[in-house]
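Progress note, sequence design subtask.
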């Protein structure tokens, strides 16, 4: 073999085996095919979108376990889908349209309100709700609930004779708080039914009173202490305020969009019960 022929052979080997493959040099994209099913492709993008909507417990699985698992799921789904061919039922077509409508409208909402929940807006909403709130009293209350006035009076007599209120509650109350001595914790005005609230407001601190009649039965009440209820710090209600700001932003955005749309509703003459008649999807 001449030097030239040896060089040619070496170049041929390099051309055949030495060059890096396209898969090695081209970074994967959303269009990169990860599987095919009877010629239908499943892409890396399909995997990513599927992973986005997985329940939280699956999101924490290792990538090397979750990735092939998602591919397997998509392969199975595609194989099942293909058994339908091109003949989709009216129900399937409407369901697909509904899912697309729901997904796309949600995407629009997310994009349209993404800047609505800022620290400034949360602070503004907090100030509007609590800044000018007048202090009000709240009460640390325990109670005993029984089914008759006579039983309530007998228990009150025992308590006044020295039986601890909590012990009387544990042994006799038919309320769900009996196990913790009838303790209701701190309650503010408007948190209970009116007869109970009126009795709490009028009760002397530290002295059992009653019986009080409500729709639930007969109560004995013990107000341990009262205090002025001030506005809660922002940190304590931030989650609630954030949800309120987000809902207000979404409601406003939906209203703005629908107000611009030409909408006609033609419900007259249609029995509302037809909304549950699935047989219409078979016609």
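Output:
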């Amino acid at each position: 073999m001449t030097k030239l022929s040896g060089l040619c052979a070496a170049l041929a080997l390099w051309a055949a085996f030495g060059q890096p493959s396209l898969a090695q040099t081209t970074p994967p994209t959303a269009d990169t095919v990860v599987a095919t099913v009877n010629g239908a492709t499943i892409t890396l993008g399909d995997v990513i979108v599927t992973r986005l909507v997985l329940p939280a417990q699956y999101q924490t699985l290792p990538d090397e376990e979750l990735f092939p698992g998602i591919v397997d799921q998509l392969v199975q789904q595609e194989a099942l889908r293909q058994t339908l061919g091109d003949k989709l039922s009216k129900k399937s077509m409407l369901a697909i349209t509904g899912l697309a409508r729901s997904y796309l409208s949600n995407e629009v909402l997310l994009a349209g309100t993404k800047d609505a929940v800022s620290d400034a807006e949360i602070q503004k909403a907090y100030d509007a709700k609590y800044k000018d709130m007048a202090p009000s009293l709240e009460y640390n209350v325990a109670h005993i609930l029984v089914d008759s006035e006579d039983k309530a009076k007998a228990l009150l007599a025992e308590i006044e004779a020295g039986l601890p209120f909590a012990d009387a509650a544990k042994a006799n109350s038919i309320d769900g708080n009996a196990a913790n001595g009838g303790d209701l914790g701190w309650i503010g005005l408007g948190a209970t039914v009116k007869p109970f609230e009126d009795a709490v407001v009028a009760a002397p601190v530290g002295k059992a009173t009653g019986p009080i009649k409500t729709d639930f039965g007969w109560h004995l009440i013990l107000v341990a202490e009262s205090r002025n209820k001030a506005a809660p710090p922002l940190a304590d209600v931030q989650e609630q305020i954030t949800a309120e700001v987000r809902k207000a932003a979404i409601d406003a955005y939906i209203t703005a969009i629908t107000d611009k749309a030409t909408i006609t509703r033609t419900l007259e003459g249609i029995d509302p019960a037809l909304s549950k008649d699935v047989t219409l999807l078979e016609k």
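The longest strand covers residues 217-229. Work on this subtask will continue into the next period as scheduled.
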